[in-house]
Amino acid sequence: MAEANPRPGDGDSLDHLLLAIAGGDNAAFERLYRTTSSKLFGICLRVLPQRAEAEEVLQEVFMAIWRKAEMFDASRASAMTWLSMMTRNKAIDRLRANAGGGQQAAIELDELESDASAVDSAESAQDRERIEVCLDELEAPRRKLVRIAFFEGATYEELAERSGNPLGTVKSWIRRSLLKLKACLER
Amino acid sequence: MNTTDSQGAPPPSNMAAEYVLGVLDAGERREAESRIAGDAGFAREVAAWESRFMPLLAQVAAVPVPDYVWQRICAALEIPASRPKAVSRPGLWQSLTFWRWLAGGALAAAAACAFVLFSTPRLIAPPTAHALVSTLADDNGAPGFVAVVSADKASLTITPLVGAPADGRAQELWLIPQGQAPLSLGLVEPERAQVIRIPDRMLADVGTSAVFAITLEPHEGAPHAVPSGPVIAKGGIALL
Predict the structure, then answer these.
(1) Any domain includes A44
(2) pTM of this prediction?
(3) Distance between CA B123 and CA B131 in Å, rounded?
(4) Chain A residues within an 8 Å CB radius of B23
(5) Is residue A105 part of a domain?
(6) Which residue windows are transmembrane per the record (chain B) (predicted)?
(7) Do A93 and A154 belong to one domain?
(8) Within a domain: residue A104?
(9) What is the CATH number of the domain that holds A73?
(10) Rounded-to-integer distance, Cα A95 and Cα A88, Å
């Protein structure tokens, strides 16, 4: 997979580095850190706006990589997906542990209702990731909620509060959006 | 499956998708995780959703990590901190591949925990203890050059990590002391490491408060009194 080797030419895929780390290879660990930490830190900061917290979570992530690298299964996910999702999960867990530490900004959905079908229509669909194409098939307010949920790790309750909509409505929107996304992604 | 947008009761929960999307609360997340551990079908479903959403995470901008994070990781994991004896093999220190590797991940070469770098047989200890080093990166944080100042500050070794400028202009290295005008250290050749002499009058200015920068300049008349072209890379100076 393309993202499995972000530094082509250096002869060291992330898969190989993880394998070496599972065998206790310090140099491979350092190399993985240098290759991926800034990307993973960016993911931490999307969920945890407080830098100190994001740094702590990044530390947790690399400690988990050192200890659990043997759990990486290349047949199930690419290395970058495994690392990114592990990072995001740890960041979300941290967010849940200290409620109220995440993004608080109000989510404005009303203003989006009118331009529901106009977004990105000029962009060539072929050059874009499938998930983006499918997100664009959602109505603009739903798409916005789904993106915020994903990038900020916000719960249903937080999305309802921040967007000023009833919890049941937000749940319905997101669950229907997930069904639509799945149907679109599997098309 | 209800795929219409009619109002009414929410569609049933799809826990795998909701877990990956990130909307579950702490208790539900624990429940999802125990299902991942105990239910292979559920685990596959989660992995499928993770792959679907991964392209969104791939868009997240990388952010340089402060050096002390790596230091803390090493300390917490008790990765041995003894620095092995220096082996004299200066050729490698100027190897392009080595520097490309060292600067990988857009991190400063001055990162702490440097001992890990030098713990494998094919790598060597830095030429001097307490060397001043700088990773010069572009605006996106991608490293373009690595500079290592000799212990006596009389010279520096600069190694390009990127190719020659496409427009044929020369690359000029500048030392910018804090709050002062840039001082030219001359042109930097593309594609190879080289040693640049630091004029005596600049010795006092080479330190951790100064910055190195590379600009695109005409070949003629170098070293120039002032930069005229765009800055393509810059970096702070740190103690290795």
Answers:
(1) yes
(2) 0.59
(3) 17
(4) 149, 154-156, 159, 174
(5) no
(6) 98-118
(7) no
(8) no
(9) 1.10.1740.10
(10) 10
pLDDT tens digits for range A8-67 = 434 469 999 999 999 999 999 999 999 999 999 999 999 998 999 999 999 999 999 999
Q: Are residues A91 and A114 in the same domain?
A: no
> Which residue on chain A is closest to B70 by alpha carbon?
A59
Same domain for A13 and A93, yes or no, is: yes
Does the ipTM exceed 0.95?
A: no
Verify whether the Cβ–Cβ distance A156 to B14 is below 8 Å. no
Chain B residues in contact with A153 by the CB 8 A cut-off are 22
Q: Where are the beta strands (DSSP E) in chain B?
A: 132-137, 143-149, 155-160, 170-176, 183-188, 194-197, 211-217, 231-236, 238-239
Q: Which of A97, A130, A147 is the last residue of a domain?
A: A97
DSSP state, residue A2: G
Residue at A181: amino acid letter: L
Nearest-by-Cβ selection for A38 from B53, B58, B106: B106
Q: Which residues of A touch B107 (CB under 8 A)?
A: 34, 37-38
> A16 at the B interface (CB within 8 A)?
no
Q: Express each pLDDT in B170-183 by its tens digit.
A: 899 999 888 888 88
**pLDDT tens, position by position, B25-47:** 999 999 999 999 999 999 999 99
Residue B123 belongs to what domain range? Answer: 67-239
Residue B148 CA to residue B132 CA, distance in Å, equals 6
* Amino acid at the residue B32: A
Tally of residues, chain B: 240
Tokens in use for B94? 């100027």
Tokens (6 digits) for B125:
């200890």
Q: With an 8 Å Cβ cutoff, are B1 and A77 in contact?
A: no
Residues 6+ apart with CB under 8 A from B65: A37, A38, A41, A55, A58, B107
Which residue in the set A31, A63, A185 is minimally distant from B52, CB to CB?
A185
User: Which residue among B21, B54, B55 places its CB closest to the CB of A178?
Assistant: B21
Counted domains in chain B: 2
The verdict on residue B173 lying in a domain is yes
- What's the pLDDT tens digit per position in B87-104? 333 344 444 454 454 454
Q: What is the CATH number of the domain that holds A156?
A: 1.10.10.10
Find chain B residues with C-beta within 8 A of A81's C-beta.
50-51, 54
Contacts of A80 in chain B (CB under 8 A): 54, 58
Residues A90 and A121 in one domain: no
